[in-house]
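Support request, please re-run this one:
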Amino acid sequence: MIGRRILGGLFLSAILFQIYCDVRAFGASALLGPVELVTATVCIGMFSINRLKGSMLGRSWRRFTNTAMQYVLSLSAILACFVLGALLFYVAAKGIHGLSFHLFTELPRPPGIEGGGMRNAIIGTLLLVLIASIGGIPVGLLAGIYVSCFSKGKLGDAVRFSADVLNGIPSVVIGLFAYAAFVLPFKHFSAWSGGLALSIMMVPTILRTTEEMIKMVPASHLEGALALGARRGYAVRTVVVPAAKNGIVTGVMLAIARVSGETAPLLFTAFGSGQLVLNPSQPVSSLTMQIYQYAISPYDDWVAQAWSGALVLLMMILSLNVAARVLTRRMSPAR
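Re-run finished. Output below.
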């Protein structure tokens, strides 16, 4: 109760401070701003609910609350789907005009010259994600299995805490670390350094997802395998992990989707290149870096290609998720 009051007081203080700043900057017209209107709506709603609660019987009030919360939850789910749909629709509407065969087959042209494509960025993105997956997926999977099945003491708690902290570190800080660890010692940028930076970001997501998915497997699965004489490691590998593979694959896809849209670590490591590079020891470009470069340029053709590149990136991530779901369904045993 005390925590709620403190949190409510802090929230109310922040709202009042924002209203004070708006009124001081824009005068009385600031009272019609978005923060002020939302605050007024919430206050009116709370006042109306309290009056309604006082005028209704206990059973009627519980029924009303249950129905209202069902509508709120349904509206929240619809809103979440609407945001995703609106994002996909807007990017598709802006990027479909610049989407062509040349976008996938041609290299970028000099500034001011129309045409060209993002072949180098598409190949570079695939190369970086491949390196990141090779480095991050095994470490995350093995660490998650160890924490959930073999470690019950302080070491497991330390690994969980480290994963949570690492998951909250800004990507630009990871980029700086990767620059100091993988770029400076070798005196040049490369796809290896960019992929390793992305793999660091993948590990905590895969680790925590793997741990939680394995915890959801009933303990009777492991106990039954141990009762039949199987060693713990063999039982985990053949019984527990296959039972949790759907959730684990989803976590891996989530980690890949996250690093596929990263830009900051690659600016310090992969650096970018206008040429098609297949050698991981050389600087490479990525879709995110080229989208950023094109989006802030003064050339309309480059801006159009930036939207098309964003659409391609979204389609790549969507394809990965759909492929993972189809694969896990085919791998699942028939019920």
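The mean pLDDT is 87. The first helix runs from residue 2 to 26.
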